[in-house]
């Protein structure tokens, strides 16, 4: 009588099933999920898994519900595995990763919603009777909703009270919903979106759902975020780059777009190197005949007019400067005007005898087909092989429409969206295996695929195409509800900003971008000498604190969604070093005294602010707060700190 957690269509048309208990097993550790990203353990002592075995004896389908609990995290991971042993096939029309009935509905639902250039805004609504959902039916996890929601008690705040967080480790169509019935029971579910989903299971076949993650916090939303941060940073992100300090990059996109020559890129790189930047990333426009967005996606070979020595020629020159080289790709896409389209029109997702919609002049390749994933993989590997590429930005710039797998028959259509995502994961896996030293950054028109599934392959993700510092406050603040700072790509760009035309101080732009994987996205040669010195200092600062920023405990202090200011801080695990940031969007007139109350300090330890001689006890800083009026709200004697869009960073050390 409510939305079910699964649905099985049988050959006679019935959808009734009854899975009954057959047994269970408990074992140390946690299994990897076949072909899907998941939280992992490094030794068996870290976790314990319970598997519950169920069976429908009429159709002879088995169901294993798997629950893992962890030694170090207040987390339950849950997935479901269907395996069909009956003679007659069944069609799985719905298979949630998680379904839980909470005995009451006295919660607020917290979601992350948005659009291009304003991703992951925090929205909070009290639960009410009926169904409230977040979802994507776009083929990627989307700008619109994130595969996440939280239920917090009405009285719970940012730092106090009960919160349950729900997150899905998946990058495709999803639904998260809470169904409140007339007896105030709240059923929370999370999994693949059943719209258009129909997975046929023949005898001997299995279906593995993605993994859902449940987090419990008694320390409010921020407490929940801290659990997600450490779980995803330590036990979802993988590979060499998981624990390494991330390079400071200069990305060519907002500097030159597709209008560049090798010389132009080298000139930017030379200046960047001089300022302390560690990696030059060449963004879109290096392949085929691509000079604007109407052509060449799919033609993965360098344009000799722009890069006479190819990728290798450029990367060698960059490496000679003492920097690393990174490259942008968009492997899932195809332009109508491309050699690939002329050769393989059947590789597109489309209904061949109907109009097809473009998005940014491009079309989506059918990654549900092995030959497409293989073919694109071969092309990308031949570009990267021995080319000296140390970083890849993997983009995905449109949603899937007219979902249809050509020449595959009706059964394949219900499998298209999920198989597409499996194809993306498979290609990631192949590239990671082939190039284990490459650092991957995922991207989808900014942050349309900022999800835990991607984090398993790419430890960082381009947070948003909106690089305006003031807009970024909300975007990064919202993103931090689930995702660690070590996963957020954050760059300083020019002013006025290209998306909002807002003029913000260079200092404020850096003060916001420090709280992520830092870089620049502008023509550094256009800077004045003073600005160059400032940038040099910014990079020096970031290098000094990047480990703390990536690995420290993050606290949101003042929400940019609630007024004209924002603040957050990071404290090291040993609570000896603190980096706090305060941002003020609008200059108040004759402002009252301002105190910023910190979090996570040692109550009885003394802390001293860099550049100051006085010290304060931790409890003083946390309960009374530190006066910041002098610095950020503007005193009349110091006009440089006046005006809108100001920021201030505070460094505190335990004595
Ligand atoms: C997307 C990305 C940008 C940039 C462009 C290139 O919009 O989010 O950062 O790479 O594509 O076309």
Short description:
By secondary structure, this protein is of the alpha+beta class. It contains 14 helices and 34 strands. Strands 2, 3, 4, 5, 7, 8, 10, 11, 15 and 16 form a ten-stranded antiparallel β-sheet that branches. An eight-stranded parallel beta barrel has the order 17-18-19-22-23-24-25-26, surrounded by five helices. Strands 1, 6, 9, 12, 13 and 14 form a six-stranded antiparallel β-sheet that branches.
Structure write-up:
The chain is α+β, with helices and mostly antiparallel strands. The strands form 6 sheets. Strands 2, 3, 4, 5, 7, 8, 10, 11, 15 and 16 form a 10-stranded antiparallel β-sheet that branches. It has an 8-stranded parallel beta barrel with strand order 17-18-19-22-23-24-25-26, surrounded by 5 helices. A hairpin with a 5-residue loop joins strand 31 and strand 32 (615-617). It is globular, with a radius of gyration of 25 Å. Bound molecules: alpha-D-galactopyranose (GLA). The site of alpha-D-galactopyranose has 11 residues, from loops.
Radius of gyration based on Cα positions = 25 Å
The SS-based structural class is alpha+beta
Report the uncertain regions.
631-637
Taking the alpha carbons of the first and last residues, their distance comes to 62 Å
**Which percent range describes the beta-strand content?**
25-35%
Largest sheet composition: 10 strands, antiparallel
**Average pLDDT taken over every residue:** 96
Shape: globular
User: Tally of extended strands?
Assistant: 34
Portion of residues in helices? 10-25%
């Amino acid at each position: 009588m409510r939305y079910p957690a699964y649905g099985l269509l049988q050959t006679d048309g019935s959808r009734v099933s009854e899975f009954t208990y057959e047994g269970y097993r408990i074992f140390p550790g946690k299994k990897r999920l076949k072909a899907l990203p998941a939280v992992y353990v490094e030794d068996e002592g870290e976790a314990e898994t319970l598997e519950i075995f169920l069976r429908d004896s009429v159709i002879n389908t088995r169901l294993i519900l798997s629950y893992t609990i962890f030694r170090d995290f207040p987390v339950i991971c849950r997935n479901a595995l269907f395996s069909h042993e009956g003679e007659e096939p069944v069609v799985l029309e719905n298979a949630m990763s998680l379904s839980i009935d909470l005995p009451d509905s006295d919660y607020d639902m917290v979601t992350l919603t948005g659009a291009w250039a304003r991703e992951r805004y925090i929205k909070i609504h009290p639960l009410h009777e009926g169904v409230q959902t977040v979802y994507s039916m776009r083929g990627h996890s989307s700008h619109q909703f994130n595969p996440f929601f939280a239920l917090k008690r009405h009285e719970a705040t940012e730092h106090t009270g009960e919160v349950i967080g729900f997150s899905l480790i998946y990058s495709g169509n999803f639904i998260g919903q809470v169904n409140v019935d007339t007896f105030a029971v709240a059923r929370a579910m999370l999994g693949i979106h059943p719209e258009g989903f129909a997975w046929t299971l023949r005898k001997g076949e299995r279906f593995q759902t993605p993994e859902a993650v449940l987090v419990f916090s008694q320390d409010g939303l921020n407490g929940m975020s801290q659990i997600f941060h450490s779980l995803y940073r330590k036990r979802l992100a993988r590979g060499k780059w998981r624990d390494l300090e991330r390079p400071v990059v200069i990305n060519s996109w907002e500097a030159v777009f597709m209008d560049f020559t090798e010389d132009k890129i080298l000139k930017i790189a030379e200046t960047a190197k001089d300022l302390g930047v560690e990696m030059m990333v060449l963004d879109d426009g290096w392949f085929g005949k691509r000079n604007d967005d109407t052509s060449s996606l799919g033609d993965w070979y360098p344009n000799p007019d722009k890069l006479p020595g190819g990728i290798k020629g450029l990367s060698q020159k960059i490496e000679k400067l003492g920097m690393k080289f990174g490259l942008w790709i968009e492997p899932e896409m195809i332009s109508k005007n491309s050699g690939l389209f002329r050769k393989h029109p059947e590789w597109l997702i489309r209904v061949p005898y109907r109009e097809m919609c473009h998005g940014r002049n491009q079309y989506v390749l059918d990654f549900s087909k092995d030959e497409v994933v293989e073919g694109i993989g071969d092309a990308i590997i031949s570009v990267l092989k021995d080319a000296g590429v140390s970083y890849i930005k993997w983009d995905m710039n449109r949603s899937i429409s007219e979902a249809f797998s050509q020449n595959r028959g009706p059964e394949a259509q219900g499998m298209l969206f999920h198989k597409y995502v499996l194809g993306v994961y498979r290609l990631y896996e192949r590239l990671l295996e082939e190039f284990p030293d490459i650092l991957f950054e995922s991207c989808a028109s900014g942050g349309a695929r900022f999800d835990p599934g991607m984090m398993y392959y790419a430890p960082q993700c381009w947070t948003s195409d909106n690089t305006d510092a003031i807009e970024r406050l909300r975007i990064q603040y919202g993103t931090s509800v689930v995702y660690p700072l070590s996963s957020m790509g954050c760059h300083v760009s020019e002013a006025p900003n290209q998306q909002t035309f807002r003029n913000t101080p260079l200092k404020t732009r850096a003060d916001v971008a420090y709280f992520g994987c830092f870089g620049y996205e502008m023509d550094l040669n256009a800077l004045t000498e003073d600005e160059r010195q400032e940038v040099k200092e910014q990079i020096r600062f970031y290098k000094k604190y990047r480990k703390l920023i990536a690995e420290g405990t993050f606290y949101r202090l003042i929400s940019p969604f609630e007024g004209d200011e924002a603040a957050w801080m990071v404290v090291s695990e040993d609570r000896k070093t603190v980096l706090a940031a305060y941002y003020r969007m609008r200059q108040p007139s004759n402002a009252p005294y301002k105190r910023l109350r910190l979090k996570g300090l040692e109550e009885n330890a003394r802390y001293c602010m860099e550049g100051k001689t006085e010290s304060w006890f931790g409890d003083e800083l946390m309960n009374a707060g530190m006066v910041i009026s002098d610095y950020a709200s503007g005193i009349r004697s110091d006009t440089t700190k006046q005006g809108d869009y100001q920021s201030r960073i505070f460094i505190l050390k335990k004595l």
